[in-house]
Amino acid sequence: NAGVMQNPRHLVRRRGQEARLRCSPMKGHSHVYWYRQLPEEGLKFMVYLQKENIIDESGMPKERFSAEFPKEGPSILRIQQVVRGDSAAYFCASSQGQNYGYTFGSGTRLTVV
Amino acid sequence: QQQVKQSPQSLIVQKGGISIINCAYENTAFDYFPWYQQFPGKGPALLIAIRPDVSEKKEGRFTISFNKSAKQFSLHIMDSQPGDSATYFCAASLGSGNTGKLIFGQGTTLQVKP
User: Fold this and answer.
1) Which of A46, A48, A71, B78 is the most buried (most CB within 10 A)?
2) CA angle, B89 as apex, A110 and A39 as ends, to 5°?
3) Which residues of A touch B (CB under 8 A)?
4) Helix (H) or strand (E) run with residue B33 in it
5) Closest Cα of chain B to A99: distance in Å?
6) Sign for the pseudo-dihedral over CA of A95, A101, A103, A107
7) Can you give the pLDDT at residue A40?
8) How does B68-94 read in b/e, with b if 16+ C-beta sit within 10 Å?
9) What is the DSSP string of A19-83?
10) CA terminus-to-terminus distance, chain A
11) Can you tell me the mean pLDDT for A51-61?
12) CB of B57 within 8 A of CB of B64?
């Protein structure tokens, strides 16, 4: 069991480019959560997805951010036209369901230059 | 209402000492309170969790104390070791019947001196 796999581990993008962050949940887990961690801060919820469905996106910025979890393949967090303020660590977590504990991945550290 | 406030921001403890980290919340609908440990460059890992129907839960050297009336909960690390040096986050969730999203505290950086 490889755990929650996130890639890339580090991503550097210039302002205005697109960032695509990928998350493969643990085997048997169909629930995926994305969180963002700014330097010296706690994690902030962004979005909760099940296969092919967005369940709760109350933490997603209204513009430039989107997420998907297709029937096949990893969950993708997409940030269009990145700005310096998007620089952060983005963590994905997966679980068997809403009442189960999470397992987090090691994160993708996005740097916008 | 949705905030979880954590203190202290940083903590230095001698090896063998007790580390205590505190959290407070406002929303009485929260019903699941986990603690996560995070090492540099890694994702948070679940350490221990409690539900509000118990006042204390112990797992090895880690204990959660929960005070429902005060809306506070704390993590105690007994016999602290240098390997415990990490950032610790408390969190709260609306849990059953909701989306299960976690509201995290700001984190406490613990340093255990040998």
Assistant:
1) A48
2) 30
3) 4, 31, 33, 35, 40-45, 48, 55-56, 58-59, 91, 93, 95, 97-99, 101-107
4) strand B33-38
5) 6
6) positive
7) 75
8) eeebebbbbbeebeeebbbbbbbbbbb
9) EEEEEEPPTT--EEEEEEE-TTS-EEEEEEEETTEEEE-TTS-SSSEEEE--SSS-EEEEE-S--
10) 36
11) 92
12) yes
Give me the tens of pLDDT residue by residue for chain B, a chain 114 residues long: 678 999 999 999 999 999 999 999 999 889 889 999 999 989 999 999 998 889 999 999 999 999 999 999 999 999 999 999 999 999 998 765 556 788 999 999 999 999
Q: Is the pLDDT of residue A6 over 80?
A: yes
Alpha-carbon distance values, B85 to A42, B7, B37, B88, B108 (Å)? 17, 16, 9, 9, 10
Rounded to 10 degrees, the C-alpha dihedral A60/A33/A40/A38 comes to -30
What whole-number distance in Å separates Cα of residue B30 and Cα of residue B98? Answer: 10
pLDDT at B82: 97
